[in-house]
């Protein structure tokens, strides 16, 4: 019996680490969807670019974890703004399908363009953390677990403060509530959207660096599956709702580690997508979403 | 009017026969390089896939990006019939297509309540689930793949493609097809006009899945081996790119898109990264400057020949 409890607690630790990555990426998805109603398929690949920026900073520039994290966040924020300005802005009034296809195009471009630039081979992240492992009553907690969970919680609190209290955060909420009314109130909608992309991409970059550090290897296609799963997390929590993305991310991370813990790790991805389809069918507005009746 | 359509059908039929005869002739004379033969059969497979996806995405205005999932079901079902039960090829292809249509029907029932982005993501999830199920099935070889004897010839692939396109074309121009178009144009208005939108959406989805399954069966019986990885969402995106490039809602556009993309990717097969980077740039530029695709909802037709014919006819009078 004690063994089972140990197993469960161990999977909770693993799940929280994994979940914090999903939550960070899901935040970007949800913020972008909230403000321009676009599923930014390229978001997972922005995370990949962030991971590479962090790798470059730690290997070539020999920086420690926090400066590398900051560099990666800045690089990805710039990339996010560029993507929005070049690819999405001309399509702001186009059909949903057109913007979704563009997002898929941007995603391909980053993945395979990335392959051309950094070569398809895997890169190993240098060990930036000590290999300290704590054994708390049979549960193994790695130094990386602590850093991962702490970093993501700090970033989430920071995001919450920005969205809730800063001027740009208020503008973001206004634009996402009603684009045109916000414009009439003198809010610079274009800059607000750019800021949203910058913040979302920076969070994705942080997730990318954490992922590289935690799993040691990165490659140009690393963003696809976590990107899709983070999207699942965002939908699960109710897309467009920031606390929903956090809860959805942690929920998905925990579910996945329990599925793996039960010895069915090859089914892990299927479970994530099954959750997605079930949520979409049962409650498409997500756990925290309100049902909005469509008007004719 | 009747005369014009007749003339056009005759010209099209002659064109189709000519293409078949040229390729079949060069195969018989053994002057066709195998790489080109492979590309031509792939063109046929992708034409079936893109026209059937166009029925869902372009004609009915739904947004599915799980077409590779249906293709996978058809491919594996056809392979099981051929390998495990020693069934004839025709039966295998039919079984694959029917099971895929059934899956389309079952998936369509709940997911078609969803709209736009949500439907897209749900179908993407469905496609991935199908792939993971086959990946975990030892009965069909799991990740290492499932070997199938090669029985598809150019004749099979070509005529199955022609038949599929004709059926899809006739569906689009039937009452049902027009109902589907009305859903695309305005679902609420279509509903108000008394069209059973759910029924037609599921019908389009099922027919689309049927032909995707057929294409999968052809694929499985041509390429010696099928692996779950082949049917990942990248394949769905490939098909989507063809449809979008040719024009959502244009059948000839889908055919054009399938031919262009298959030939381009065959030509760039030595540089797979460049192929996808070019596809990506093409897609983005296309969406920004011509979001309707090359042909939009128009059909490429030989009507200019028809008009000439009419003129001749009237001048004779």
TrEMBL record, chain A:
Keyword Electron transport in record: no
UniProt record, GO biological process: D-alanine transmembrane transport; L-alanine transport; L-isoleucine import across plasma membrane
InterPro entries linked to this entry: ABC_BtuC-like, ABC_transp_permease, BCAA_transport_permease
Keywords recorded for this protein, A-Z: Amino-acid transport, Cell inner membrane, Cell membrane, Membrane, Transmembrane, Transmembrane helix, Transport
Chaperone is among the record's keywords: no
Gene3D superfamilies: ABC transporter involved in vitamin B12 uptake, BtuC
Major localization class: membrane
TM stretches of this protein: 12-36, 56-82, 94-113, 133-159, 195-218, 230-251
Annotated localization: Cell membrane
GO molecular function, one term: L-leucine transmembrane transporter activity
Membrane topology: Multi-pass membrane protein
Stored Pfam families: BPD_transp_2
An annotated GO cellular component: plasma membrane
Family: Belongs to the binding-protein-dependent transport system permease family. LivHM subfamily.
Designated name of the protein: Branched-chain amino acid transport system permease protein
Automatic annotation (TrEMBL), chain B:
Entry-linked InterPro entries: ABC_transp_permease, LivM-like
Organism: Desulfosporosinus nitroreducens
Transmembrane regions listed in the UniProt entry: 35-56, 63-83, 89-109, 116-134, 154-172, 202-227, 239-264, 276-295
Protein's cellular compartments: Cell membrane
Membrane topology designation: Multi-pass membrane protein
Keywords for this protein: Cell membrane, Membrane, Transmembrane, Transmembrane helix
CDD domains noted in UniProt: TM_PBP1_LivM_like
Protein name: Branched-chain amino acid ABC transporter permease
Pfam families, alphabetized: BPD_transp_2 (PF02653)
């Amino acid at each position: 019996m004690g063994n089972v409890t140990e197993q469960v607690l161990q999977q909770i630790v693993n799940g929280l680490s994994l979940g914090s990555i999903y939550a960070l990426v899901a935040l970007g998805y949800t913020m972008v969807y909230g403000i321009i109603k676009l599923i930014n398929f390229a978001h997972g690949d922005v995370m990949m670019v962030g991971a590479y920026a962090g790798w470059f900073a730690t290997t070539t520039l020999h920086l420690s974890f926090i400066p590398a994290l900051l560099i990666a966040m800045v690089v990805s924020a710039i990339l996010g703004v560029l993507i929005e300005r070049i690819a999405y802005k001309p399509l702001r009034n186009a059909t949903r399908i057109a913007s979704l296809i563009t997002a898929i195009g941007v995603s391909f471009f980053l993945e395979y363009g990335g392959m051309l630039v950094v070569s398809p081979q895997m890169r190993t992240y240098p060990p930036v953390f000590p290999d300290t492992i704590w054994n708390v009553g049979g549960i193994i907690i790695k130094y990386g677990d602590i850093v991962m969970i702490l970093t993501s919680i700090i970033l989430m609190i920071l995001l919450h403060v920005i969205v809730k209290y800063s001027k740009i955060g208020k503008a973001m909420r206004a634009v996402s509530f009603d684009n045109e009314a916000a414009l009439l109130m003198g809010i610079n909608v274009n800059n607000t959207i750019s800021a949203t992309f910058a913040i979302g991409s920076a969070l994705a970059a942080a997730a990318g660096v954490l992922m590289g550090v935690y799993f040691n290897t990165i490659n140009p296609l690393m963003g696809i599956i976590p990107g899709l799963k983070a999207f699942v997390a965002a939908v699960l929590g109710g897309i467009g709702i920031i606390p929903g993305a956090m809860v959805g991310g942690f929920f998905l991370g925990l579910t996945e580690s329990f599925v793996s813990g039960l010895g069915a790790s090859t089914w892990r991805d299927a479970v994530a997508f099954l959750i997605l389809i079930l949520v979409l069918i049962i409650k498409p507005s997500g756990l925290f979403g309100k049902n909005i009746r469509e008007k004719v | 009017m009747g005369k014009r359509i007749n003339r056009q059908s005759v010209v099209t039929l002659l064109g189709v026969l000519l293409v078949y005869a040229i390729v079949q002739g060069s195969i018989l004379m053994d002057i066709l390089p195998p790489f080109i033969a492979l590309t031509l059969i792939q063109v046929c497979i992708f034409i079936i896939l893109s026209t059937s996806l166009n029925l869902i995405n372009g004609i009915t205005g739904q947004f599915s990006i799980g077409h590779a999932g249906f293709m996978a079901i058809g491919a594996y079902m056809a392979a099981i019939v051929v390998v495990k039960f020693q069934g004839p090829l025709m039966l295998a292809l039919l079984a694959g297509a029917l099971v895929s249509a059934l899956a389309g029907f079952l998936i369509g029932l709940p997911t078609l309540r969803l709209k736009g982005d949500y439907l897209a993501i749900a179908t993407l999830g469905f496609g991935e689930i199908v792939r993971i199920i086959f990946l975990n099935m030892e009965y069909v070889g799991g990740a290492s793949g499932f070997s199938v004897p090669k029985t598809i010839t150019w004749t099979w692939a070509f005529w199955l493609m022609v038949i599929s396109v004709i059926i899809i074309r006739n569906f689009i121009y039937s009452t049902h097809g027009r109902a589907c178009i009305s859903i695309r144009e305005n679902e609420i208005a279509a509903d108000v006009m008394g069209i059973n939108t759910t029924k037609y959406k599921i019908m389009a989805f099922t027919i689309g899945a049927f032909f995707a399954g057929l294409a999968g069966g052809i694929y499985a019986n041509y390429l010696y081996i099928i692996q779950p990885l082949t049917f990942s969402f990248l394949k769905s995106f490939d098909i989507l790119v063809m449809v979008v490039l040719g024009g959502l809602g244009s059948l000839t556009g889908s055919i054009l898109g399938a031919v262009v993309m298959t030939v381009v990717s065959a030509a760039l097969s030595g540089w797979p990264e460049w192929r996808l980077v070019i596809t990506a740039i093409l897609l983005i530029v296309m969406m920004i400057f011509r979001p309707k695709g090359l042909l939009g909802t128009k059909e490429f037709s030989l009507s200019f020949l028809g008009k000439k014919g009419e003129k001749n006819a009237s001048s004779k009078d």
